[in-house]
Amino acid sequence: MTRLAVFDCDGTLVDSQANICRAMEACFVEHRLDPPGRDAIRRIVGLSLIPAIALLAPAAEARQHADMADAYKRAFWAMRSDRSLDPEPLFDGVAEAIEALYDAGWKLGVATGKSDRGLGHILDHHGLTSRFVTLHTADRHPSKPHPAMLEACIAEAGAVPETTAMIGDTSFDIEMAVAAGTHPIGVAWGYHDAHELHAAGARDVVTHARDLPALLEAL
After folding, report:
1. 8 in catalytic set
2. If I label 127, which of 34, 84, 118, 133 is the partner at 20 to 30 A Cα–Cα?
3. Which residue in the list 10, 15, 169, 173 is annotated as catalytic?
4. pLDDT for 172-201, tens place per residue?
5. Is this entry keyworded Lyase (predicted)?
6. DSSP conformational letter for 33
């Protein structure tokens, strides 16, 4: 039996909100639009880029949403090139939880609205790449909460939905987990409130990463 734990990235593994907010603000300014507040930006973390921008700029046309997504990417990678990116730290206890699950024989994956390049940078930076057997991003799949990227993780890991847990901080993650027939596990340290995660169908919401291994072992 293959036991698979799939993690979201932003807001679940790492705290990346500062850089996401700065890049989103820059793309709005480039398009001569008033940037949304940071609370609004945090609400869309986890979605793929164009659907996220469409929620933040509903009056703009689809072509402008695509152009703004390109502007966001340029702003983000300009920050990386000039080394002005803020740190994107792992949340407290995440590294230890990943090691505990890995040592217990769990296969690990990531399903994220980030790009392949962005996810690769995060995992390399924190020395976690070797711990994950399957990585799927918005570059190759529809936006969450569509279950495609999670289903791809399950297939690639040789698991089944009944032995898979999806761990995330937003209602988009939980809705994706429910749609894929997996165990939906919320985390309380990210960008959506615990009551929203429960409302979306979370089986449990953990308040610290150290609680994840025991919870998953009990599934």
Report:
1. yes
2. 84
3. 10
4. 999 999 999 999 999 999 999 999 999 999
5. no
6. -
